[in-house]
Design a protein that fits this description.
Shape: elongated
Largest sheet: 8 strands, mixed
Number of strands: 16
CATH superfamily of the largest domain: Bira Bifunctional Protein, Domain 2
Structural class: alpha+beta
Helix content: 25-40%
CATH class of the largest domain: Alpha Beta
Number of domains: 2
RNA sequence: GCGGUCGUAGUGUAGUGGUUAGCACAAGAGUUUGUGGAACUCUUAGGGGGAGUUCGAAUCUCCUCGACCGCCCCA
């Protein structure tokens, strides 16, 4: 503990305060509207799953599973993990709930926190919110394009600038093993000239060498055999079709033959979305792809699937950097000020009358000075302040003060709701 | 897991070995106790934590915690 007298949030996790909620709400609104339009059903899965689900689904050798999971043991000696991403859990749910017997393709979306034990950094947290879309039971390439389109549309609707899609194909079990061999033998011949990290990658996950940013590895990457040249017929035509769809809907993409993702379950299409604007966040805003083998791997029926996820914190920070507004806060138009205990009681009652008529009224019942209450009303930007004092309470009236002009009218307390409603129009 | 920068009231900052640790904003109370947006007064509240050096540490050293930024990896 950093300070024995104070608690603080744990490393890499932070509060989302009221002032930031508008960004999250805006994102949620846009995402849920789009999900609804495209016919996705919302799903929530538990934050905790069996460790083995992730190990098997994401891949034992991946960094996410090997060193970034929050693992815990229960009293019953079960090994559980906080979800580092949603897909494995959703696939589990798809299988467990027999969703294969629902009309296919089955479309699901989600929005919620994930956990990864990593070093916190720009756009990276140990607790972070992801939203994502998954489509099960459809192998057609049009689905891949549609998933990309959905994410592009979400970002477009959020007014994020300079969006770019990077796309690649990582092949499938027919062609990827062969390509890996090819790449390995190529790299073996150049092993002396690659960076130390790549030497390690070469052993652990050859494909990741393609992702290296080291200067000295670039020429080696350029001359390396590219997976796109070695896709099997099926993967090749699938990928070609995806690109044709993207051309058709005029999405700005670039082929990135070096794009390989860190989760093992991908087959065929993989992609990431970025914003290339100033304040340049090199982090992907969203990433995903096709995972045709995952459902079967997790002991379900052989079911093709495709999906992607986006990082909410990264989007929020980009929105701030690009001066994009969050969801609009409701305005405070009416403030109810009271003086004296009798007025306070009447005020409590009057507030309920307003609530029943769906008129938002702010108040500060805890304050006793009228001055302080008017001050608050002013700061909240109220158009009218209703003043209810001892005198008014006795007479059954309320003073309606126009905050702009300072003009005040005395109206009957039974009519004030209707009168205020009228004035606000 | 590895490297770099940093850590003073709620926020933003000043102060480089001895100061009542200063300022601004915010918050709260008030200036004829029933009238806001100005001014003024007052109040709340501070050197991340722990050790060490020293007569004396916010200031120097070490450890630790945290934040930010890279690497790795990812959303």
């Amino acid at each position: 503990m950093a300070n024995k007298n104070k608690f603080q949030s744990v490393t890499g996790m932070h509060d989302i305060l009221p002032e930031d909620q508008k960004y999250y709400r805006k994102i949620y609104d846009v995402v849920s509207n789009i999900a609804e339009f495209y016919g996705f059903g919302k799903i929530d899965t538990p934050i905790v799953e069996e460790t083995e689900l992730f190990a098997k689904g994401i891949g034992l050798a991946t960094d996410v599973v090997k060193k970034e999971m929050y693992n815990l043991k229960t009293k019953g000696d079960d090994s559980l993990s906080l979800r580092p991403e949603w897909t494995a859990g959703i696939v589990r749910s798809y299988i467990e709930n027999g969703m294969h017997s629902l009309p296919q393709p089955l479309k699901l979306w989600y929005f919620g926190p994930c956990y990864r034990y990593e070093r916190p950094q720009a756009g990276r947290y140990r607790q972070f919110w992801q939203f994502g879309f998954e489509i099960f039971g459809e192998s057609s390439s049009v689905i891949d394009a549609q998933i990309i389109q959905i994410f592009y549309n979400i970002f477009k609707e959020l007014k994020l600038k300079d969006l770019i899609i990077e796309i690649n194909s990582v092949g499938d079990s027919n062609c990827r093993p062969y390509y890996k061999k090819l790449l390995s033998s190529y790299l073996k011949s150049r092993e002396s000239s690659i960076c130390p990290d790549c030497k390690r990658r070469f052993k652990e996950n050859v494909l990741r060498v393609l992702d290296c940013k080291e200067e000295k590895c670039q020429p080696i990457k350029t001359e390396a055999p590219q997976i796109l040249d070695h896709l099997c017929d099926e993967c090749h035509s699938h990928f070609k079709e995806v690109l044709e769809f993207l051309d058709e809907i005029e999405l700005p993409y670039t082929l990135n033959p070096y794009l390989v993702r860190g989760l093992d379950y991908y087959t065929k299409t993989v992609f990431e979305l970025f914003s290339e604007s100033e304040g340049g966040c090199k982090n992907a805003l969203a990433g995903g792809g096709r995972y045709d083998k995952l459902v079967k791997l997790l002991r379900g029926r052989d079911t093709p699937a495709c999906g992607a996820a986006a990082g909410t914190e990264r989007i929020v920070s980009l929105m701030k950097a690009q001066d994009i507004e969050g969801a609009k806060e409701p305005e405070t138009q009416i403030f109810l000020a009271q003086l004296g205990s009798m007025a306070k009681r009447k005020g409590l009652w009057l507030l309920e009358e307003f609530r029943k008529s769906k008129v938002r009224v702010a108040e500060s019942f805890g304050k006793n000075s009228l001055k302080a209450q008017l001050n608050r009303a002013d700061k909240l930007g109220a158009k009218y302040t209703l003043i209810l004092g001892q005198k008014e309470a006795l007479d059954g009236v309320v003073i309606v003060r126009n905050m702009k002009t300072g003009k005040q009218d005395v109206v009957k307390i039974d009519e004030v709701v209707a009168i205020v409603k009228k004035r606000l129009k």
